[in-house]
Write a structure and sequence with these properties.
Layout lengths: L18 H16 L9 E5 L3 H8 L8 E5 L7 H14 L5
Parallel strand pairs: 1-2
């Protein structure tokens, strides 16, 4: 659904199997699309609120990639604590992804 962002400004990455790959492949697509370096662009990673901390930390491992973040609310609030706990485990092993 349209959330106020011009669809022409969105780039879909569909090859990745995990967050680290998604960030790496997205950075490559953004470079190709813009024809310039990542540092000159305003980039935002949109993801579930519980996932943004790890996504932000992983993005720092991609050279020149320094996106902002935009949280999406957890669709099932009853599972919110479970999702945050899962992410805490992900933070402990994230160095194995890149």
């Amino acid at each position: 659904a349209n959330q106020g962002i011009d669809p022409a400004r969105l780039i879909m990455e569909d090859r990745s199997e995990n967050t680290a790959q998604n960030l790496q492949y997205s950075a490559e697509l953004i470079k190709q699309d813009s024809g310039s370096g990542l540092g000159s662009l305003k980039i935002v990673v949109c993801s579930a609120e519980y996932h943004l901390c790890r996504a932000r930390l992983l993005s720092r491992k991609v050279p020149g990639f320094d996106p902002g973040t935009l949280p999406a609310p957890t669709p099932r609030p009853v599972l919110r604590l479970t999702y945050f706990m899962r992410e805490a485990c992900g933070l402990m092993v994230q160095d194995f992804y890149l």
